[in-house]
Amino acid sequence: MSIELRNIAKKFGDFVAVDNISLHIETGELVALLGLSGSGKTTLLRIIAGLETPDTGEVLFHGEDASAVSVRERKVGFVFQHYALFRHMTVFENVAFGLRVIPRRARPAEAAIARRVHELLKLVQLDFLADRYPSQLSGGQRQRVALARTLAVEPKVLLLDEPFGALDAKVRQELRRWLRRLHDEIKITSVFVTHDQEEALELANRIVVMNQGRIEQIGSAEEVYHHPANAFVYNFLGNVNLFHGRIENGRVFLGDTAVELENTHAHAHPETGKAILYVRPHLLEIVMKPNGKQTFPATVKSINPAGPQVKIELVAEWGDMVQVEIDHERYQALHLEPGANVFLRPKEQKLFVYSI
Amino acid sequence: MATNTKRNNVLPGFGLTLGFTLAYLGIVVLIPISTIFFKTFTLTWPQFWAAVASPRTIAAYRLSFGASIAGALVNSVFGFIVAWSLVRYEFPGKSLIDVMVDLPFALPTSVAGITLTAIYAGNGWIGRYLAPLGIKVAYAPLGVAVALTFVGLPFVVRTIQPVLEDLDQEYEEAAATLGASRLQTFVLVIAPALIPALLTGFALAFARALGEYGSVVFISGNMPMHTEVVPLLIMSKLEQFDYAGATAIAVVMLTVSFVILLGVNMLQRWSSRRLAA
Amino acid sequence: MAGQPQREPKRPGTADPPMVRIALIAIALAFLALFLFIPVIAVFAEALQKGIGAYFAAIADPEARAAIRLTLMTAAIAVPLNVTFGIAASWAIARFDFPGKQTLLTLIDIPFSVSPVISGMLFVLLLGVRAPLGGFLAAHGIKVIFAEPGIVLATIFVTFPLAARELIPIMQAVGSEEEEAAIVLGAGGWQMFFRVTLPNVKWGLLYGLVLCNARAMGEFGAVSVVSGHIRGHTNTMPLYVEILYNDYQFAAAFAVSSLLTLLAIATLIAKRFLERRVVPAKQEQDNLAVKVAA
Questions:
Q1: Alpha-carbon span C71 to C259, nearest angstrom
Q2: Closest partner residue to A77 among B177, B188, B276, by Cβ?
Q3: Tell me, what's the pLDDT at C4?
Q4: What pTM was computed for the model?
Q5: B170 — contact with chain A (CB < 8 Å)?
Q6: Are C28 and B85 in contact (CB under 8 A)?
Q7: CB contact set of B35 (below 8 Å; sequence gap of 6+)
Q8: Does domain C46-293 have CATH number 1.10.3720.10?
Q9: What is the mean pLDDT of residues C54-72?
Q10: Which domains does chain B have, with CATH numbers?
Q11: Residue A219: in which H helix or E strand, if any?
Q12: Which residues 225-264 of B are in CB contact (within 8 Å) with C?
């Protein structure tokens, strides 16, 4: 079922949570609402579910206005951040809940309910825990039970509020992959909220980057990462270095030294001429000798060789901190040490410059 | 803010404070309490039994237990409604009402007693409307129940209120997204979480009502075998210098009170373990 | 006792249908009107039955004034003693580890599970003329039962746990780090106590004090047993109310009652004011177990 949001706005007192958002989600898509706390993503999710009413705007399910439809009747599955499993019910009873509250006439027989519950528990690989209570389960297990419970009533849409936020890093990664596979299998329209850009990039068909109640950019992982629409998106997704500089005559100058960076999309601040240059750590090369107009001097501060790449922290000549990531072979070849004076050069010709 | 209960070599005053605590406790509480046990041991078994099982005493037990349970039940039902309204709804005068719920705690029992009597006597504020209907409240067992309802009122409300306030509304939202009606959500999700608190409040109201004297002594009329509750009986025996009889009955009351409190403690420990998420 | 409820915006998923809401509020209000508001109004209405002149005459009556004096004196003795005990006990319990702590807590609670009549009776058994200790004192001309000292003792007994039960969780919640810091910086024990400990627990202290005071001034059952009801001498205000009532001086009885009611209301207001400032350490549920017999 497709979801359409038109001009949704919501305020809590003076705080603007959602500021005129319109969005269209296709049937079967897995969409991420990505942003910081306070960006409005959870509020938006809850508005879709009917757990909050928007001040203005409409929510349409499959083209039909759902504004007057209550939470109960919307048939959306909602997985809460802290699972909201019913403490006094076993896993089985939790999953069966949605089926047991169906009005008598339409309710399936108890045997049919039991079958469906076990089916779902098998799907989430927790059938052996059916008689346990939530307090006896690990965080990852609880999360899967919460999912099974939501799927039991065959919702048209699946909404997840920071589903993996409360879990350990390793469990989070496992569940991420697991959710991806689940979605490939049942192809239900899904929207999930997260502040973890890695999660969004890994899981979603499309990512909606949100900030202060507004959408900054919508696009696939590729699009938002490699073609960020603005400084916020660039900064939010992945690590990035910020260099403070000036733009003159269509060229960027960093520090007192005239390091010219040509071929940039350079928009300076109309009055001050100041700009910020964004470069990802792995897009900077370390060389021992200056090599053309785009190299600039820097001093090595610290080296962290643990991990798939070597992370090196330097101080640029004009004072900005720089993070660079290079592979181990290059690192071996350079024989770097803290205090060494080197030169850095951006790899890509196309750089991002945003004015301030 | 760490809760630090390590035996602390840095902080002073252990000897002083513990010593004073134990000494004061001994003088104020333990010695008086022990007199009742010493006195009990001076009673012969027939003496004890005569006091504890006489028809008049049994009638007093019946009234005490019956009226206390009735009061606690009424408070459980209506106290629940009051707590629910205070936590979930907005209405004018809510803060005032929230403050006033504790009145039975703060008001001297004799004041409560004479006021309730004035209200429910045959010519009283409310009594005058009930008399033509044949309903006698003052100087009847019903009056005792009314007084005991009054004294227990805050217990249920104040036990349920914090639990309700802490109840995460996400559970109700989850139930709603799963298609449950409001009534179903209440019965299946909210109520089970509140039962321990409700039981605790009931037990506390009950225990308080059992020992109540001041609020009851005026409205009941103290007619032996009819409107005499156990505390009144004890008082009566004391006035007649029947210390042995009074002690015997008091021992029974104390035992019951301790058992109830023990039960409440166990209930609270069981429920906090069971419902820990 | 009520925590700070979050004023959350309306959440459709948790809202009750309007009819249900109105019905429940109506029931709650009706119940409370019947059991709380009508009695309070009745006290004042009955007190003014014979007019304002009679009202003030009743309060200014010498016996009434003696009762007021005794009430105040009793509270002035019982409350500071029990509050001091509360401070000492909470310090020992919250700051140190020792065997039998749980037993100690249970013992502290004892006066609460005892019916007021039995509380009074304990002192009659202990200090009445027939008791060994009482006989001994009587022989030396010290009258305890049926005299003021008995009343004070009984009041101390019934209000014993009130301050301690408020202070113990507060002391625990506040933690000892600041006090340790003070010691390390060279403060002496009493300096640490007055400059660091007391300020941190002051709201809990006041709260316990208010509760203790209300109960000390309002106690009836226990005091009734030990007092002997000797007019002008061994009557506190709650007892005096009883005497007036049994004498059919209803308006006077309610006049004195109205003073006690005003005190009760002032106590409630002070309670609410202080509750907001008290660290919500252990939940009030534990403390309620303590208010069983009053």
A1: 12
A2: B177
A3: 37
A4: 0.81
A5: yes
A6: yes
A7: C122, C125, C126, C131
A8: yes
A9: 91
A10: 44-276 (1.10.3720.10)
A11: strand A214-219
A12: 231, 234-235, 238, 243, 246-247, 250, 253-254, 257-258, 260-261, 264
